[in-house]
Structure formats: structure tokens, C-alpha cells
Amino acid sequence: ELFVKGTGETTDIVEKEMYTFIDKGGRSVTLRPEGTPSVVRACLENGLFGQLPVLKLSYIGQMFRYDRPQAGRYREFWQIGVEAFGSADPSMDAEVIQLAYQLVTEVGLKGISLELNSIGCKRCRPRYVEDLREFGKRHVDELCGKCVERIERNPMRLLDCKEERCRIVMKEAPVILDYLCDECAEHFAKVREYLDLLDVPYAVNPRVVRGLDYYTRTVFEITAEGLGAQNAVVGGGRYDDLVELMGGKPTPALGFAAGLDRIVASLEAQGFEFPIDEGIDCFIAVLGREAKPVALKLATSLRREGFSVEMEHLGRSLRAQMKTADKLKARFTAMIGEDELKSGRITLRDMKSGEQRSVEEGEIPYILRRGGFSDGADAPS
Ligand code: HAM
Percent of the chain, pLDDT > 90? Predict the structure, then answer.
């Protein structure tokens, strides 16, 4: 119900892509296909809208859509989402769009393009939708089967059909920007002015209409190089009527979601070097049963201090244990055997330099944190 109402009854998401099933308690359950209606509902149920005049939220999580899988399009995928509530001012559009742009540029994506449009409001859009429907009817013979259905149900969707024949027809279709009321036109001009001010490069594309029903006025998409057909890494826009539609007070809002899987895929395609797993801080080699309790306590106390630690549990030879330490890319190896138990000290080996020293247990965290033995006061003779 949440997504039927929020995302929209005639959207692809609701018509075909929701994972909806009945759970063992007989309840209808849907795996969320997107985050925006959920965020609005959470704010309404928890009274968040009243707490700050402008409320800004973000989330990261998996979304689920039953779509035909292909490169860059998965049935389970991750989104980073941002939603800002409370202001209808174009300065907030600019702020949110700038954030989306900064996100994709700062992670290092190349070949980015930001496409911007306004799809008007409930006052000016109906006239456009009507003209678009008339246009669709005149070209019904040239459109694909899905688009023929869209003419009645949701003509705006004619504009983002991927079929070549529909794209050719739609090149001649009326353009929403010619239908904007004065307020929407002024809002859009201001958004562009602010984006220019912030040096955010964009192209106005009147064919960007987005596939979800709640949008009003500003909509935008960011695409990146190296992704093939599914190249949108960010999609977003204003949704000034959604909070009211879901039972709240009229609250202007806008936001976006970035597709994390696509960002990673695009970085991979562009040859980005992901940081390599750096290995653990310390491996504890255990020689003999009596050493076990000391090792176990040391591992626990080092982990409490935030270090990543592994220890020997298999009672193997020192050689075999050192091999494991190498495999785990341990920065240090602590060795506990007969000598250490007698002296109450621990032998610590710097795995990079090969240097080995006998140290007090209490010194180990300092040495691990420093990343090496020091030649200063705490170095044992
Ligand atoms: P959306 O355009 O449906 O918008 O999705 C946003 C982004 O999620 C897309 O640009 C894409 O990167 C990624 N994405 C979508 N579907 C898939 C998929 N099947 N596989 C991989 N990645 C995918 C929304 O979801 C809106 N809730 C955004 C929003 C927030 N608008 C306002 N606030």
C-alpha cells in the first residue's frame, strides 16, 4: 500500500517490479523497491517533521526490484539516499543537486553528465499530459505495445521508453518546459542560476521525466561512463505533494538516490584501483598448551583496544603458524612459548622489517599503534 500510494500505481515499479508476498501471519509484505515513501512514512509516524523547520536525512540500504537482470541492473541493489524536507526554495534544490554531483565526482567517477528538467506542478502539468496523450493517439501505429498502453494510463512514460521506434516518434512530442506556469518557470530559472553559481555543470533535457509518480518541478539524473545501457548512477527530484498525499501537512521536499552497485561497476570499468585489504594488526603464535590462556587473554585485550587480531588454535609448529601470519598479512606476530611464560615477556616480530624484540605485554598496544618498534625510552634492551 505504501508504494502503490507513494511511488505510484502506474509506475513500472508498482505494476511489475515489487517483491510482494504473504508472510506466515497472513500479512502482505513487500521488499522495499525504493526508500522515499518509507522515509516519509517514518517521519510521519515518529513526528519528525515538527522538530526542525528543515529536516535533512540520509540512508543507505538494499532495495529490491523484480526487473529483468542485466549489466548494472540487479534485483537486489544498494542505494545511498538523501531527502530534504521543509523548503520550497530553489536554493534547496541547488544544495541537494550539488551534493549529488559532489558525491559522484569525489568518489572519482569519470564522464559524468548531469541532466536537469522541470516537470511542473499539479496546476500546469495536466495540460501538458493532455497534449502528450493527444500526440500519442495520433502516433499510436508507430509506438511499441507498452507505449500504446501508456497513452491512457501515464503518457509521461512515453518519453523515457527505450525502444528506438518510440524514441524517434517522441522527438517530435510537445516539450514540458513550454507548458510551465510562471511560478514553476521562475523556480526552474532560479535552480539553474544557483547551479551556475556553484559551478555544477548540467544540461537541460526535457525528456528526463523520471519513472516515479511523486515528482514535481525539478527532476535530475546523473549518468557516468563505462556502464552501457544502465548508466544512471543518481536519480532524484522534488516531490512537494508526497507528504500531504501520505497524510501529513503540506511539506515541500526533494532528494535523490545514488546506485552504489553502479558506482562501483563504473569505477571498475574506468580502471579505478580499489584499496587492497591491508591485513590484520597482529597474529599470536602459541607454542604449547600452557601458552594458550596467555594468548587468549592477550588477543581479547588487544581486540578491545580496536586491533584486528588472530591467534593459533590448531597447536601447529611455529613454522606453520608463521606461514599463516604471512597469509593473513599480519603487521606483527606475538610469540608465546616456554621462554616467554618463564620471563613474563612476549616476543614480538615486526613482519615488515623482520626485527624481533622481547617486550612487556603492556607495551604491545603502543607498538601496534605506532606501527613499529621505537628506539626511544620504551624500547627494551
Ligand atoms: P531511482 O531512479 O529509481 O530513484 O533509483 C535511483 C538510482 O538507483 C538509479 O539511478 C540507479 O543508480 C539505482 N538503481 C535503480 N534500480 C536499480 C537496479 N535494478 N540495479 C542497480 N541499481 C539500480 C529512486 O529510487 C528514488 N527513491 C530517488 C529519490 C529520492 N527521489 C527523491 N528522493
Answer: 85
Tens of pLDDT, residues 206-259 = 999 988 999 999 999 999 988 888 889 999 999 999 999 999 999 999 999 999
- Ligand 1 probe mutation, 16, 17, 75, 77, most atoms within 8 A of CB: 77
The verdict on the CB of residue 101 being under 6 Å from ligand 1 is: no
3-state secondary structure the chain: CHHHHHCCCCCHHHHHHCEEEECCCCCEEEECCCCHHHHHHHHHHCCCCCCCCCEEEEEEEEEECCCCCECCECCEEEEEEEEEECCCCHHHHHHHHHHHHHHHHHCCCCCCEEEEEECCCCCCHHHHHHHHHHHHHHCHHHCCHHHHHHHHHCHHHHHHCCCHHHHHHHCCCCCHHHCCCHHHHHHHHHHHHHHHHCCCCCEECCCCCCCCCCCEEEEEEEECCCCCCCCEEEEEEECCCHHHHCCCCCCCEEEEEEEHHHHHHHHHHCCCCCCCCCCCCEEEEECCCCHHHHHHHHHHHHHHCCCCEEECCCCCCHHHHHHHHHHCCCCEEEEECHHHHHHCCEEEEECCCCCEEEECHHHHHHHHHHCCCCCCCCCCC
Question: Ligand 1 centre from 2 Cα, in Å?
Answer: 17
Residue 33 CA: nearest ligand 1 atom is: 25
User: What's the CA-to-centroid distance between 95 and ligand 1, angstroms?
Assistant: 19
Predicted confidence (pLDDT) per residue in 115-165, tens digit: 999 999 999 999 999 999 999 999 999 999 999 999 998 899 899 888 899
Work out the mean pLDDT of the chain and round it to a whole number.
94
81 lines ligand 1 (CB under 6 A): yes
- Is any atom of ligand 1 closer than 6 Å to the C-beta of 35? yes
